[in-house]
Amino acid sequence: MSKPKIELLTLVASLCIVGCSATDNGGDVGAGNAGGSVHSSGAPSFAGSGVAGAYSAGAPGVAGAAMGGAQQGGSAGSSGGSIGLGGGGTSGKAGAPSTGGTGASGGTGGKSGGMAGANTGGAAPLGKFVGNITTGNSVDTGGMKFSKYWDQITPENSGKWGSVQSSASGSFNWSALDAVYAYTETNHIIFKQHTFVWGSQQPSGTPTLAQVENWIKSFCARYPNTRLIDVVNEPPPHTTPNYTANLGAGETGTYGWITKAFKLARQHCPNAVLIMNDYNNIEYGDQENHFIDIVKQIKAAGAPIDAVGCQAHALRTMSAANLQKNLDTMASGTGLPIYITEYDIGEANDATQLATYKAQFPIFRNTAAVKGVTIWGWINGRTWVANTGLVNGTTPRSAMTWLMGELGRPVPPN
Q1: Residue range(s) in the chain whose domain bears CATH number 3.20.20.80
Q2: Dihedral (C-alpha) 51, 57, 61, 62: value to the nearest 10 degrees?
Q3: Could you report the per-residue pLDDT of 187-222, keeping only the tens digit for each?
Q4: Cα–Cα distances in Å, from 277 out to 247, 305, 310, 336, 339?
Q5: E-strand spans in 105-204?
Q6: Residues 323, 327, 331, CA angle at the centre, nearest 5°?
Q7: Count of CB atoms within 10 A of residue 212's CB?
Q8: CB atoms < 10 A from the CB of 163, how many?
Q9: The pTM is what?
Q10: Widest pairwise Cα distance in the chain
Q11: Active-site residue list
Q12: Which pLDDT value is given to residue 43?
């Protein structure tokens, strides 16, 4: 990605600049720079009791996956079912599928009530979550159990097409992604896919439309409980795949390939929230306006986009007032929910990092359009951008201690 602003130039030495593989430092990279993404509705709260929400008819029961307090899962059907997203505790038992059943609401725990999250894809609504990413290809690390601290996970690298299929005509290697997905199923946390279509870390050659569809179809069949998907990552001018002509064949408009990617994702992953993700789109006004314009164009062309992703890597010096203004502009301009997808604050000084978290997280928490936050790494020294981690070894930094307190979750290494 290309981040021309002066503030980010100081970070370049610590960034993975090109073609990151599935390693600790595998941030989104394209055209030589960095990248990052959020979502919401109702009176926000990141933790606590789950909020019941309607299932689409016949959807499988994922109810009762509570991070805080033991609970019994409700059955799925045309109504009912929920996910409790509170503090650490015993995971709930998933309810069996049914038709028309009313699911039990999520378990209590944590600080305050969970909030409903929009999901136009047909699955159960998501609570407002605070998640994180894999460390390398690992989930639990340093003896610490990921799901005690985070209720959502994004694979940092293993979900990128080039990590699964080195050549679009070659075989799939699902092993790393299988392990992450299996962890979410066992521990009842939200799985978010990153990413289907991107201008970097894609297979070699020039994939055909059939090959793009095969990738998306194969993923969706293998991981049916995927709740959120970055369908297109970092649209132009940041990155552009070399197969846009193939993918966009038959579609209209400048961004027909983006429209087609969303149509394929909806066809094969009908229950997932479909997101277009980008960096700098809540940091700089010109880039925010451009991103909003793309969203408007693809919506007009029939793209079934459910939400927008804002990576949020460049918020280190942004005031709370400007952050709020930019989030409001994104929400009103697109008419869509927002997910903060790759949040990090690169500060070696614990007090400074803590102050930034205290200033910015309440904005995410209290903005109705923001549906969830994914922090881009939590183990210091093993994150994409230097000094963004929240735990040194197994010792929490001040921002981690504060955040876990706000969410009603345990503090590492507990």
Answers
A1: 6-40+114-407
A2: -50
A3: 999 999 999 999 999 999 999 999 999 999 999 999
A4: 18, 11, 6, 13, 9
A5: 129-133, 152-154, 190-198
A6: 170
A7: 24
A8: 23
A9: 0.76
A10: 56
A11: 234, 342
A12: 34
